[in-house]
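Collaborator request, handled under Task 6.
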Amino acid sequence: MNVYKWYAASRWLYLHHVPILPGIIKTGIRIIWGGVIPYQADIGKGTILGYQACGIVIHKRCVIGTGCHISQGVTIGGTSGLYEVPVLGENVQVGANAVIIGPVHVGSGSVIGAGAVVTRDIPPRSVAVGVPAKVVKTLEENETASI
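Structure tokens returned to the collaborator:
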């Protein structure tokens, strides 16, 4: 069974106020796959957590749209002293070991390169790379890019 299905089960249990089990599943994900995928996070259907979420860390208040691809080693989280956390639109692709932190929005259809550090908003259909991440290309309506 893939890790997203375990997350989805724990999320369903959490939303239906079933005690204890969501936390057990979250701990199991951490032990078995080495990822921190909290049941409180809102992760859209069809999202792929690369290499079974190996090394992926997601903040519990993050919102990730449908159809995203989050590669191994990615961190999506907050920063000290700020309540807001990242929001990813639909069909966002995030390369291995990228970091998305703080109150940022990554627009739908965007691609974040491997190892990028995102600390500012990324417009929809953009390709962002580097440290700090900068938009290097805007994708046309019929154009696609992948990690």
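The cover message to the collaborator said: "The chain has a mean pLDDT of 94. The chain has one domain: 3-138. Please let us know whether this matches your experimental observations."
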